């Protein structure tokens, strides 16, 4: 991994938990923005990262950040570490047994009346709307012991579709939890070897697994690497399509790649599945006889069209802009949709600016963020009574280098180029992290 100073700028951790009120606001917060933006990410318990690479950043302790809005005003900001055994060893010695050994620092979702913090394959935790850790995710039944950080919720049916990819047998497990929180599908998927799967996709009728070129190599741990993952030229990249309610998986070969994040997928017609992603031509590729990693390339928006009758997959880039952390109006997860919202990557080491891509017109709109600043993913919040897909707000945490603090910006999703309609100025940082959610009140 490239050497990165993890203890300065946007990545720098915070050292304490806070509750802040009376926050300064520029502009006008929409009256219908009622709820909470929650963002998850790594923040070491010591308040300081050890190491100088991204593999020293990803595994650190989960910290949630939340900013709450109500009737045109901002109520406050709060951050909390999740109460894991790792947390207890530092802050509550002797009480480790009352916490779970997990570190769900990837994502946050709400399903069937519960809020979950999600890990990369580890056990999720149930949290409260005040960011208190409530315990294990028992409602997730067979997936309470571990699942992806990127399950999909079908907002038409209320189903949660999930998987667990593991380095040990069974290598892949697939599940569906219905709108009442009942596990209705739980099945093992046969795999020849373990595969690093970070995300998945759903359509109305099928779910899609990504078995790609980044996989496990445990010899790396003995060579000083913190994660046993690397690019595998020898692996055949493929997409696995399974009926939503379980059944046989059909695998479709694609060109070598790494996909961290799915944009969306849908059934184009009875025989064609469209899968949109941001795709890397390669990722975590080793150089110098396996001692170090090459610099990762940028990811671009990419479309697969899977003909499930002929077995042929057409794939192609969509536009040249480098981007990551794609989001959509999640009411359309698994359905035909028009707009992609993502973080722009102006250089390989920057996540700065928001892109909106319109599939109908093929046009890009951009919210430009100045050099030195950094922003997290744009979370779409539909306006109350919205009648069009893009009638809503994009919420995004923006780190400001000049003040070493963060803003939370509210953009009109229909017109991001004109800048925020409202900006909440925090007197602290929200360090760069992973994913989050809008939890409507
Ligand atoms: Fe992710």
UniProtKB/TrEMBL annotation:
Q: Does the UniProt entry include the keyword Iron-sulfur?
A: no
Instruction: List required co-factors.
Output: Fe(2+)
Report if keyword Electron transport is assigned: no
Q: Which UniProt keywords apply?
A: Iron, Metal-binding, Oxidoreductase
What family, per the record?
Belongs to the carotenoid oxygenase family.
Q: What is this protein called?
A: Carotenoid oxygenase family protein
Source organism per UniProt: Chromobacterium vaccinii
